[in-house]
Amino acid sequence: MPAPSTTKPARPDFRFSPRVDQVGIEERAKRIQTRSIKNESKAQGLKMVLSMMDLTTLEGQDTPGKVRQLCHKALHVHDELPGLPTVAAVCVYPSMVAVARAALGESEINVASVATAFPSGQSALEIKLADTKMAVDAGADEIDMVISRGKMLSGEYDYVFDEIAAIKEVCGKARLKVILETGELDTYDTVRRASDIAMHAGADFIKTSTGKIQPAATLPVTLVMLQAIRDFHRATGRMVGMKPAGGISTSKLALHYLMLVKETLGEDWLDKHGFRFGASSLANDVLMQLMKQQTGFYQSADYFSIS
Amino acid sequence: MLKTYKLYIGGAFVRTESGRYLKLKNAKGDVIANVCHASRKDLRNAVTAAGKALPGWSGKSAFNRSQILYRMAEMLEQRGPLLVDEMVLMGLTKTAARREVNLCIDRTVYFAGWCDKYSQIFSSVNPVASPHFNFTVPEPMGVIAVVAGKDTPLLGLLSNLLPVLAGGNTAVVLAPEAYPLSSVFLSEIVNDSDVPGGVVNLLTGLHQELLPHLAGHMGIHGLIVDDCSQETAASLREQCAENLKRLFLRDSDWTDPESQHPYLILDTQELKTTWHPIEVISGMGSGY
Fold first, then answer.
1. For A276-300, how does the pLDDT look when each residue is reduced to its tens digit (9 = 90+)?
2. B60-95 as b/e: b if 16+ CB within 10 A
3. Which of A53, A142, A185, B84 could be joined to A190 by an S-S link, Cβ 3.0–4.6 Å?
C-alpha cells in the first residue's frame, strides 16, 4: 500500500499538459470491449471487482437507517456464496459518516465521504474546508472532493490546484480522491489537464464523476486518466489510484475496466489501493454473475438484497 | 439475396449475438430465408428486457391494455394478406393460411375484450371469522416464457401469448421451429401497435437447446410450453421444481373455439389476498 503523499511537489505549467488523441483513445477503448473473457478468469475478475468496490449512497433521501442497511450489505455481501471478499469502502455524505463508522465497527471496510460542497463544488473555500474537516473528524478514512469545474473551464488552473492542495492538508491521514466530473469538462484534453493538476496537488486517487451528471464514467475517459496516472508515476515515482464512478452497472463492463487498468498501468494497480469502482447497482450484478457461474442458472435480482 | 429475419428484444429488431443462422427450407427443399439461431445469451437479454418492461405494462390500466391488444388485432387484419403470403411461402395452402389468419384476428379480439373483465370474474370477497374485510384479487405473475407448439404457424403462439399479455405479464416467446417467419411478422405487428418495447420479446431458434435455460432462469416466473414430448415434459417438470417456477404444459387444438377461455389468463396470475381490519360493529357500539 503506497503511503499518502506528504511532500509538496513543484507546480508544472498545466497549459502544456499533453494533448489527447481522441480517435485513438476511443478506438482503443472500443477494442477492449470486443475481447472475450474465459470463465475462470471471469470468476477471479468478478471477485476482484467486488474487493475494489465503493458501495455508494449519495441521495437527499439518505437516512441513518438506509446507511446502516448499506453497511450491512458491505459486511455481508451475499452470505449464500462463501469466500467472497468484502467491498473496499462505503461512500456517504459527511452527515452520515459517524453512522457508517459505527455500523462498520472493527471491519476493514473504509468509510469514504464526499465533501467540498458535493456535487457542484460551488461554494467558498472556507466552507469546503469545514465540510472536509467535519467528515474527517467524524471518522472518514477517505475523502472524495470535487474540483471547481467552472474555474477549470475558465482556465484558472492555479485556483484549482491550490484548492486541492488546501483540502489535502485538511485531510490529514485520510486519503484524498479528487473528482474531476469529466461529464462537465467537455474535452479529453481538459480531462488530462485536470488529472495532472489533481495529481500534482496531492491527490491519492483521481475519480471520474459524482454520479449526478451524465455522461458519468466511460471507458475512453478512464483511459485518458489512466494514461495521466502512468505518466505521473514515471515522472515522480508516486502511485496514484483511479476510481471511475457512475454508470458502471454490469459485470462485463467492470471487467473491461480491469483489462484497461492492467494494460495501461500493470498489475500493481490491480487492488483496492490502486483502483476502485464507485457504484451502487454493480454489486448485485457481480453477485448474480458469480451465482450464475456456481449454479449454472441465470439469476434474478428478486433474490438479492436491494442495491 | 435471402432475407434474414431478426430477433425482437426490448423493442428492437436485433441479430443474434451468437452470429448463428438457420436456413429455413420449404417443402421442396429450397432455402427460403435465413433465421436467427438464438443463443442462451439472447435469451438472457430477452428476459432482462421483459423484466424491465414489467412495471410499465402491469401498471397500465386494464382498459388501456385492452385498447392496445385491440390495436394489434386491427394491424393483423390490415396486414393479413401479407401474412397469408408469408405462410404460403412456408408451405401452407392459401386456404389454410387465410383460415389461420382469420382465427388469429378473432383470438386477438377475444383476449383484448377480456383485459378489463377477468379481474371481476376471478376476484372474490371471502367470508372470515374475524373482524376483517377479506378479499382476493388476481395480479400478474411476472415474466412468462411462452414456447409455441409445432402445429400452427401463428395461432398456437398467439393463443398462448395473448392471455399472458391480457393479464399484465410480459413475455419471452420462442417461435415454432418449423414456422419462424410468421412469428417475426407478428413481432413487427407488436412493434407497430403501441405495445411498449420489452413487453413481447421474440426469439427464433432450436427449442431443445433453449428449453433448459428457460426452465432454469431465475428471472422467469412462469413457463408455458405448448405441445411437447413426454420426455421433454418430464425433464421440464424436474427443472422447474428446482426453482419453484410455474409450469404449464398445454396441448389443445387451438382451431377449436372451445380452446379459448379466460382461465388461460388465470393460469399466469397470482392470487393476492388482503385482510383489511374493520371495526367490530356490535362490540364497539359503533354508529354503522
1. 999 888 999 999 999 999 888 999 9
2. bebeebbbbbbbbbebbbebbeebbebbeebbbeee
3. A185
Domain count, chain A: 1
| Grid coordinates of A49 | 471487482
Q: Does A237 touch chain B (CB under 8 A)?
A: no
Chain A stretch 268-297, residues whose beta carbon is closer than 8 A to a beta carbon of chain B:
296-297
Q: Which residues contact A10 (CB under 8 A, 6 or more apart)?
A: none
* Domains of chain B, earliest start first: 40-284 (3.40.605.10)
Q: What is the band of A92 on the pLDDT scale with cuts at 50, 70, 90?
A: very high
C-alpha cell at A6: 506528504
Domain with A294 in it? 14-303
Q: Examine the pLDDT at B288 and tell me if it is beyond 50.
A: no
Distance from CA of A297 to the nearest CA of B (A): 5
CB contact (8 A) between residue B44 and residue A302: no
Instruction: Tell whether ipTM is more than 0.90.
Output: no
Inside any domain, residue A6: no
Residue A265 in domain: yes
In angstroms, what separates the C-alpha of A299 from chain B's closest C-alpha?
A: 5
Tell me the C-alpha distance between B45 and B252, whole Å: 30
CATH code for the domain in which residue A199 is found: 3.20.20.70
User: How far lies A239's CA from each of A132, A146, A236, A242, A281, in Å?
Assistant: 23, 20, 9, 10, 28
For residue A302, the chain B residue with the least C-alpha distance is: B219
The answer to whether the Cβ–Cβ distance between B219 and A296 falls below 8 Å is no
A5 in any annotated domain: no
Instruction: Extract the C-alpha cell encoding A143.
Output: 475523502
* Assigned domain for A107 exists: yes
Reading the block at residue B67, the C-alpha cell is 385498447
